[in-house]
Design brief:
This protein is mostly helical. The protein is built from nine helices and no strands. 27% of the residues are buried. Keywords: Sigma factor, Transcription, Transcription regulation.
Amino acid sequence: MGGQREKDDGALLRAVAAGDQAALADLYDRHAGWLHARLARRCADPEVVREVLQDTFVTVWRSAAGHRGAEAGGWLWTIAARRLVDARRAQERTARAAPEPDAAAVPSAEDRVLARLEYGDVGTALDRISPELREVLRATVVDGLTTREAARLLGIPEGTVKSRARRARTELRAALAQLNPSPLGGPA
């Protein structure tokens, strides 16, 4: 009953850092399902989702020694989310280079909204706030997780999620105000 399956994420990551492929397989079995589901909610292309999931675990293999703590969920999601953004940017560059867009490849409304979040003023403002605050906002607003779910995913207490979310909104408003100064109070 005991053994490798009973190891916490931190122990598995230490084993992965030491080159243990079985530990990576256990980590994959433990986390790939929910990562795939969350990625699929943010990206309609199943091939991109599979590639991002694979890239995530390749990154884990290469950088497991850098992870600290017992929980890996938040760290894995951060890697996966960044890989998804990279994949979307690569797709966007390819689409711009393509001579004629394919009418059948029209992005869904959700993809257009997420792209505006990633690449528009909100995305620029998000890049200006700290990574901890950004991840809380993405988990609670973009992914629609509850405070409890976000706390579990990110490996932090619920109270920390709430306080970071409040700080993140304040900093995001300030960053957006810098990008788009209000015309109120200016010359008429």
